[in-house]
Amino acid sequence: MKVNKLIHSNIRHHRLKKIFGLTVLLGGALIGWWNLYIKTDVDSNDAYVSGNIIPVQALVSGIVAHVNVDNTMLVHTGQILLNEEHNLTSTQRDKAAANLAKSVRDTKSLFAQMAGQQADILVLIAKKSRLQNDLIRYRQAFDSGAVSAQQISDTESDITILNREIEKATANLHKSDALVAGTHIDNNPVVQKARAEFIDAYIRDQRTDIHAPVTGYVADRRVQAGEQVKEGQPLLSIVPLNNLWITANIKETKLERIRTGEPVTIKTYTYGDHVIFHGTVLGIIPTGGSTFSLFPPNNATGNYIHIVERIPVRISLSPSELQAHPLRPGMSVSIHIDTQHYQHLSTLATQVQTLDTSYATPIYEMEIANAQRAAQAIVTANDLPSEKTANKVTGFYQ
User: Fold this and answer.
1) Regarding the domain with residue range 244-296+305-355, which homologous superfamily does it belong to in the CATH classification?
2) What local confidence, expressed as pLDDT, does residue 395 receive?
C-alpha cells in the first residue's frame, strides 16, 4: 500500500510539473501575443529628461577679475555672473567719446565757416558793385578830361580781379557745403560715424560685465579668476529647471500608434514608482537618431546591417509636478503612452511652444538705448547749432 501511494504521488507530481510547464509556456505565449498584436500602449525605458541648457560665453576678450557665481547657485536674469577688467575697453570708450565730441565741434565749425564764406562773398559783391558804379562815372567824365584812361583801365582790372575772387570764394563755399549740405549736426555723416564708433566702444566696455541671460541654476563653470578669455569662449551654463520635457526614443516598430496629444505617465529612477509624472506627447522628431550622427548610414552601398531605428518623441512635464518633485536634464525615466485613441489624432502635428522665458533673454534690449543716450549727451554737451540755422547757411547760394 505504501509503495502504491508513493507511485501515485510521483505520477501526480510529474503531471503537476507538466501542467505547470505548459501553463508557463502558454502564459509566455499569451504575453508575447498581447505585446505584439493586441496591446495598444507603448512603454519605453530609453527616455530621459531634457531642457534648455543656456551657454554663457565671453562677449569680449579680457582677463577675468572676479567670478561671482559657482555651480548649483541660482541666478536671476540680468545678474552679474563675472567681471572682466576693463582698463583697455574703458580707455577705448573715452577715446571714442573724445572723437565724437571733436566731430561735433568740427561739423559745427563747418557751418560757421560757411557763414563766414557767405559774408566774404557779400563783401566782394559789394566791392564789385561800387567799382562798377565808379567805372560808369569814370567813363562819363572821360570826355571832359576829368578822368584818365589809366584810371578807367585800372578800375576794369579791379572788377576782373573781384570776379575771380568771387568765383574762388563761391567754390570754397561749395566745398564746405559738400560736407554739410542737407544735414544738421545729428545726421551729419562725420558725426554719425563717430557716434557709431562711440556706441561700439561703449557696448564693448559694458560687456566686460557678464550678465545672466535667463533665470536658472549654474552648471559646468569652467572659468577662473585671472584667466585670459577670448570672445566667444564658453564660461559656464545656466539650466532653467521650470521648463523641462521628456525625450523618449521609441522603436520605429512601435511608432504606428503614437500621436501628438496622447496622454503619458512617467516614472523616474530618482523618485521610484510612488511618484508618477503626467504629460502628453508634444511632437515626434521628424528624423531618426542616426540622421544627425557623425557618420550617418549610407545604405546605398549595400554593405550595412539592418537595425531597428529609434525615433525621438517629445513629451511634456507638468510645471506643478516639477515644482513638487524637481528633475534635472539627463535623468533617466520610463514612460507609458496610452495610444488607444490614436485614430483621432495627428502624427504630424506639434504642441511645442517657445513661450517660456528660457527661449529668450531681455538683457540686451536696453544695451543700445543706453549707449545712444550716452552718445547724445556728448553731442548735446558740445553745443549743437539748430537745424534751422544749418539749413539757412547751406541754402545761401542755391
Assistant:
1) Efflux pump adaptor protein, beta barrel domain (2.40.30.170)
2) 44
